């Protein structure tokens, strides 16, 4: 994939976040707690995409942004799952994970992968963590006695989006620093596939914001 094609795909991937962002603003008064937390994650995602794209087109290293983004993203995701996993895990588990992950990112940033290096250790760890949370949520659904319409459950759509995104990109995050250190056609192709998966995640974001949750 050429650099121009990759740049266009990257731009499209970044612009898709505008749809759930505008939708969440329009429906903000009707959003439930989980959807509002997703809205804050979408805002974080939008700001990050804006900054990294500006850096990309200005030929400025945008990797420092991802070091801090990983921490805040993890905190937002853990906050979302805190409300839905309390029945199968102790309440203190996710806050402890938040602290441990933050400390891990700081140590990784200071001693292993500095701000000018892609934080593959942090993103890979976050991927494993979110996959664990996603599978835990599906397990929690299986344990529910009552029947619910999953297609009317925004958390179901968000959880599915997380599982698809992080499981698809886990290997890419892990091997990026060893195999894709230069901008070439192979690197653009692999990260282009990442952009496509990113678009799929945003579609799941949009569905999770759009639908009306089940009444409890």
What secondary-structure arrangement, pairings included, does this model have?
Elements: H1 3-15, H2 18-26, H3 33-57, H4 63-82, H5 93-112, H6 120-143, H7 154-179, H8 185-210
Could you name the key traits of this structure?
75% helix, mainly alpha, 216 residues
Fold and architecture overview:
- The chain is mainly alpha-helical and 216 residues long.
- It has one domain: Rhopdopsin 7-helix transmembrane proteins (Up-down Bundle).
- Helices cover 75% and strands 0% of the residues.
- The protein contains eight helices and no strands.
- It has helices spanning 3-15, 18-26, 33-57, 63-82, 93-112, 120-143, 154-179, 185-210.
- Helix 2 (18-26) runs antiparallel to helix 3 (33-57) and helix 7 packs antiparallel against helix 8 (185-210).
- It is globular.
- The termini are far apart.
- The mean pLDDT is 88.
Give a short overview.
The protein is mainly α. Helix content is 75%, strand content 0%. It has a single domain, classed as Rhodopsin 7-helix transmembrane proteins (Rhopdopsin 7-helix transmembrane proteins).
């Amino acid at each position: 994939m050429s650099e121009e094609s990759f740049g266009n795909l990257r731009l499209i991937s970044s612009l898709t976040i505008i749809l759930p962002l505008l939708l969440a603003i329009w429906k903000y008064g009707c959003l439930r707690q989980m959807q509002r937390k997703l809205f804050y994650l979408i805002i974080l995602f939008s700001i990050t995409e804006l900054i990294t794209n500006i850096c990309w087109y200005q030929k400025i290293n945008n990797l420092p942004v991802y070091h801090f983004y990983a921490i805040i993203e993890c905190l937002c995701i853990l906050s979302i799952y805190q409300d839905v996993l309390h029945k199968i895990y102790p309440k203190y588990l996710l806050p402890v994970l938040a602290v441990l992950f933050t400390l891990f990112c700081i140590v990784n940033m200071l001693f292993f992968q500095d701000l000018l290096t892609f934080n593959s250790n942090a993103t890979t760890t976050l991927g494993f963590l979110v996959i664990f949370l996603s599978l835990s949520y599906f397990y929690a659904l299986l344990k529910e006695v009552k029947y619910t319409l999953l297609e009317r459950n925004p958390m179901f759509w968000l959880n599915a989006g997380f599982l698809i995104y992080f499981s698809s990109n886990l290997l890419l995050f892990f091997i990026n620093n060893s195999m894709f250190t230069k901008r070439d056609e192979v690197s653009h192709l692999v990260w282009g596939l990442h952009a496509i998966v990113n678009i799929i995640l945003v579609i799941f974001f949009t569905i999770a914001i759009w639908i009306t949750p089940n009444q409890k």
